[in-house]
Amino acid sequence: MNADSLHEYERIHKELVEEGFIRRDFPPNPSIKLWNERVMKMPRDELDKLKTVRLKRLVKWAWENVEFYKRFWKNRGFYPEYIKDWRDIVKIPVLRKEDIRTDLQTHPPFGTIFHPDLAKRIRFVGATSGSTGMPTFQGWGKLELDYFQEAQARYLWSFAGVRPGITYANYLNMSGFYSWGPPVVETAMWRCGATTIAGGGETFFSWKQRHLLIFKLWKIDVFATTPWLHRLIGEMAIEEGWETPFKVLLLHGGAAAENTKKRLFKVHPNAEMAINVWGTTDGHMAVELPNSRGELVIWEDMEIFDVIDPKTNEPVSEGERGELIATLLNHFTMPLIRYSLGDYVKNEFITEPDPIFGITHARFVEPIPGRVEWMFRVKGKLLLPIYIEDAINEIPDTTGMFNIMVYAEEMEKLRIKIESKRDRVDEAYDKSAKALLANKIGLDENDVEIEWIRPGEAVWTGYKLQVFVDQRKKR
User: Which residue segments constitute the domains of the chain, with CATH numbers given?
Assistant: First the structure.
């Protein structure tokens, strides 16, 4: 690596620590309410100035040091001097996964989107699942890992009450290059002084009894996994005649509908709160403020979000829905600038301090309901799995597990498999369920076709329920 860029990378890292954006005196005194109060309650005008400085620095770095961006931007008529203010971010061309994948395939293993020499100093490699083709890889250097661990610690300490003496279990994916595993979440837990168990959700079904024993013996306080695995474990405990010990449920891998949360509190009687944690393998994140009904706070010193029309790449108006675009402000090893995350969101953010903590960073006005590719139409009505899930949780005697079978771009009927605990599903039950489901999502009951399946028969992908089964490719 040339000495100048290495020096700049290390200088920026040192600056972030010295200015207090990455806390070093950990764990704090347990009586402290917010992990990093100065940053989390930074005045809005200071946040705006900070975002402008960091965006300009990042764009300049990418143009001068990363071959991919200089080529990508020049071909689209963009130059760094166009950025005068952080709001100018919408002038930067949108980067999509296929752009990165093409670069990786042409220049393996990392492509030209990595800083050529920082790539040799990667401390952790993350990767997407590759479900839509070749996986895309992310490289985390010393700075990137340090900042993301800080970002994790902020919500774990402040929202989930993680302190010394607390036991936390991470039942997210521990394999397959998943980036929120031991290199990130567990180290954030150690910053909080907690005891951490890296359980690994992908092994739950093969090591079920072993995992259940861990929950009983270790009296886990804070449990992190998908909403569906939370529900399944709670149902198992009830059937076996014991209570789960979890006090805080961290819901990863997909937003939990309000009715899902209600069910989770029923099957986990010791739970005091359930918090949606949205994030991506790349390191983007937003976390639900406790008791806020889905308001997800963004650490604005870490990234900038904007929302576009996926057909035109143009920004949507305030209050409209579109595709979520994000820029990580402190990623220099592999910059992700105006990168499409593929999530479908409402372009509306709350910037007033929240009433509980006084946090000034912006919040999504509602939960992130799902990915753009998960949207489907029945009789012309646009739907997402979370809307279906909310309704299913009101149908008596279901486990809450389901698979939506998407067979065409425009479907005449909603075809869905739902697990029922009943030994026999009679016509009256079937009709009542169809009517409830149809009414909740704005369809006629004749537009709903339910295949009732036994508990345990729904399709899962690892520790995630496969709520959306795309059959269109097979036709």
Answer: 1-368 (3.40.50.12780), 376-474 (3.30.300.30)
